[in-house]
Amino acid sequence: MTMRMAKRAVLVEPGAPIEIWDCPVPPASGGDIVVAVEMAGVCGTDHHYSLGEVELPGPMVLGHEGIGRVEELGPDVSTDYAGEKIEPGDLVYWVPLRPCHRCHACTVLEDTSLCPNLSPGRFRAAELPPSATYTEFAVLPAGMAYFRVPPGTPPEAVIAFGCAMPTMLHAMERLGGVEYGQSVVVQGCGPVGLAAVLLSRLAGAGDITVIGGPPARLKMAERLGATATIDIGAAPDSEERFAAIMAASANRGAEVVIEAAGKLPAFEEGMRLVARGGRYLVVGLWSAPGSTPLEPRRVNNANLRIIGSALSRPKHLHQAIAVARSCHQRFPLAEVVSHRFSLDQSQQALEALGRLETVKAVIVPR
Ligand SMILES: [Zn+2]
Ligand SMILES: [Zn+2]
């Protein structure tokens, strides 16, 4: 029997051009499955890795947002991680995180998003079978959750929000949701910001104002439910943006501010936009180290809450499919995918993202 080979896009070191390696993928054993990748989301985090803004443990296959067809089931596998029967040919969605279920976070806190051992599948040596997604074939080991994408749900509607929708679903859960009629400001309109807009709209928010850019992303934000947008290209001064938000809210600010900008200065600006009694949800600063001024007295005297949220848990992937399934006809979710690249064009995909040309880019490996 000839061994299946899989091309994969490897970041050897930060700043180096992406290399395409072709290495063997063994047959699925035990609780593993082999998946033929249909679409891999190109995420800002991939770009951060390529620039060296997030530490790289060694040569790494890029991509952590995947939709693929089940190619082969290991002998111990008959269902996805919600107990749905799966067979070769079915579409599944995954992010390559695998909680260890034997640590304080997993077991005592019951919060697998804080598991310190979450990423062994993602950071394994690049010549081993990848669970990462910039590859022709991925191997999902036992314990790495994946869920079936039902027929009739366009895969684009799921991968458009790659890791962003589960991240935002987790964040909204930690926030305690948006109440009917509440005013929301979303900082940033990449996929995380767009997911925040959609979920706020579905929750019945009143005004949803997005601060971000460029215009193509703001236009999409409007189609997903934003009621107003502020283009940071046209309003580069944060005082100007502050004045616009205050003018639109009778000087109150927003009851919920959601940071999805990924840039440290967004925090200070966002804190100023929170209304008295309001909540600030910080989701986008995962790879933005640094410190920033904060006036604790205002947190105290204005009854503010600041809520952080990192990554997601497997249930949020399942919920992300449910959102795509129920909303893709009402909202142009699939159209969020604006650019498609082949695996060989992974470098160009990251560069296009870096220039903010894309709303959402995907790699189509095969
Ligand atoms: Zn991502
Ligand atoms: Zn753990």
Please give the radius of gyration in angstroms: 20 Å
Q: In CATH, what is the class of the largest domain?
A: Alpha Beta
Low-confidence stretches: none
- Which percent range describes the beta-strand content? 15-25%
Number of helices: 12
Write the element-wise H/E pattern from the N-terminal end onward.
EEEHEEEHHEEHHEHEHEHEHEHEHEHE
**Known CATH architecture of the largest domain:** Alpha-Beta Complex
Number of strands: 16
Shape: globular
| Major beta sheet summary | 7 strands, mixed
N/C terminus separation: 22 Å
Bound ligands: zinc ion
- In round numbers, the mean pLDDT is 95
Structural class: alpha/beta
Q: What name goes with the CATH superfamily of the largest domain? A: Medium-chain alcohol dehydrogenases, catalytic domain
Looking at CATH, which topology of the largest domain would you report? Quinone Oxidoreductase, Chain A, domain 1
How many separate domains make up the residues?
Answer: 2
Helix proportion of residues, in percent? Answer: 25-40%
